[in-house]
Amino acid sequence: MKGASTRRGAFHGFLSQFPLPLLPMFLLVLVFFLWPIGSLTVNAFKSNEGAFTFSNITMLFQDPYRLAFKNSITLGLVSALVGSVPGLLIAIAIEKQSNQTLKKFVASISGVLANTGGVPLAFMFLAAFGPAGLVISVLKSIGIDLYGVGFNLFSFTGLVIVYAYFQIPIMVIVISPAISSLRREWKDSAANLGASKLHYWIRVGIPLLLPSFIACYLLLFASAFSAYATARALTVGNIALVPLQIGSLIDGNVNIQQFNLGYALAFGMIIVSILAMLPYIWIQSRTSKWQQK
Amino acid sequence: MATEMKNLGSKFTLLFAAVFIFFPLYAATEYSLRNGAEKTHDLTAYRWILDQSGFAENLAITARITAVAVVINLLIMVPTVTWLHLSGQRYKRFVEILTIMPLIIPVVALATGAQIAFPSILKNSIYQLSFMYVVIAMPYTYRALDIGLSSHPLATLTQAARSLGATWIRVLTQVIVPTIKPSIYAALFLMVALSLGEYTLAQLLHWSTFPVWVTNVSQQNITGATALSVGSIFFAWVLLFGFTFFGGKNSKTVKEEA
After folding, report:
1. Nearest one of B131, B151, B143, B154 to B186, comparing CA atoms
2. N or C: fewer beta carbons within 10 Å in chain A?
3. Cβ distance A164 to B17 under 8 Å?
4. Taking Cα atoms as reference points, which of A55, A38, A72 lies closest to residue A258?
């Protein structure tokens, strides 16, 4: 319930009422976030001569950029699935444990793993899953020859496996509050009213968890969709991905035209992420109501 | 019997998770200890790291960036979120939207935008990274502080302290900060974790930080690169795990005192 009276004279009112204690944080976000993103958006619509144009944006719908968007979105969707289902199961399994030390240990390790991204992660998997790696030779000794069936770490599948290493822990972290707030009383009252375990899950548990699950899935999508460091270290230019294309357009010795194209690609990423994250924010704000104890 | 089966199921899930987490790390550690020429295991690859020029310098650079980010967090985030809880509730929604944005906008896009927007005074200082790291970490640091502040009767504590004659500074430093210490540790932990491993912004904005250096050196020697990766993962883990443990211990004492 926002006060209706504050709506009047919106911008001027906002300025004169802007609370001083918020100023440092607001300035920080303004200078180091809103300003760069604003400039980026403006430049995505600029031609070489600085005139307004849609031509950078229309380029996004042509290959190789169209393909890159298709790959990145697919990677996001698949990686989010591979991360969210095991993550959910692990979070449920943790919730069932009565051992507090174990719970705390899993919580800490998830926090650590969720931040283990980037280049070291890529090299860790290269060593473990590479042709001479221990994982491969152990699997071979029990009769599974991964490379024999066409496995390749420098591939889409490879990326999905490596991303799972930080996606699953992120899922455990973000879904845990929803699971622990499924109140015991609800389970008990369902049982009192004659519901079986299956009934409880179908009528109570799943309907309550589903929105949170979707929200967390979308968060994982965004995380895989925009991942840069691991992809850069692991792929050798064989998979077209939007973040990598932006990197090479912005980075190297390219002409101005391609700079603007890079801005347009980044703008396209923002649009995709916003489309994915708006439902996330909406669901989170709804579920936070019943999750507060 | 049924519950036992179920417990077995969840134990199995956790065991599977443990294998998934630790086996690749173990395998990578084994690989990094290989000595190719003699087919034995030793520390050759780790000694190779120390011989590379730039190891200490880049580690120091990352440590400095991290330290600045932590200080900014303490000076800006902690007072702001405290104020939001005490008398700025009206603005909570606005700040929540502000802090969730870094989750929506990809870091690659932020790096690209920073390249266009920043004047040279910002572009020429490596500490621009610290400020941007604070912003990127906001979705996590804000939530950590928010949860901590929500779980204490801060208004009551503040009124009590004020009526006993404490100044606002004293209330902040001697009442609020000690009360929400675990959440401050949690927020700083997230900040340090992000700052130590961040690669995208640093690389795209052409700064040499430890993660960027690791990548560059890694091109030359795959065993050495593995050693470096395993080493930096363990280093980060020990540091971060220490942080959570430290913070966790404090949350316990606070609860016991309450």
Report:
1. B143
2. N
3. no
4. A55
Instruction: For residue A5, name the pLDDT band (cuts at 50, 70, 90).
Output: very low
In a domain, A74, yes or no: yes
Q: How many domains does chain A have?
A: 1
Range of the domain at B232: 45-257
Give the tokens for residue B170: 């004293």
The CATH number of the domain where A182 resides is what?
1.10.3720.10
Residue B36 falls inside a structural domain: no
| A44 is a domain residue | no
Q: Report if residue A210 sits inside a domain.
A: yes
DSSP three-state, residue B166: coil
Q: How far apart are the C-alpha atoms of B240 and B227, rounded to whole Å?
A: 20
Rounded Cα distance, A108 and A96, in Å: 17
Tens of pLDDT, residue by residue over B120-177, are 888 888 899 999 999 999 888 888 888 888 888 888 888 888 889 888 888 888 888 8
Cross-strand pairs, B242 = none
Interior angle at CA B163, CA B162 and CA B168, nearest 5: 10
Residues 64-83 in B contacting A (C-alpha not used; CB under 8 Å):
72, 75-77, 79-80, 83
Q: Does B154 touch chain A (CB under 8 A)?
A: no
Q: Which residues pair with B40 in a beta bridge?
A: B35
My answer on whether omega of the bond before A19 falls inside 30° of 0, hence cis, is: no
Residue A13 lies in a domain: no
As a whole number of angstroms, the longest Cα–Cα distance in chain A is 74
Q: Report yes or no on B182 lying in a domain.
A: yes
Q: Which of residues 101-140 of B touch A (CB under 8 A)?
A: 101-118, 128, 131-132, 134-135, 138
The one-character DSSP state at B127 is: T
With an 8 Å Cβ cutoff, is B156 touching chain A? no
CB atoms within 10 A of CB A283: 18
Give the pLDDT confidence of B69-112 residue by residue, as tens digits.
999 998 999 889 988 888 888 888 888 888 888 888 889 899 98
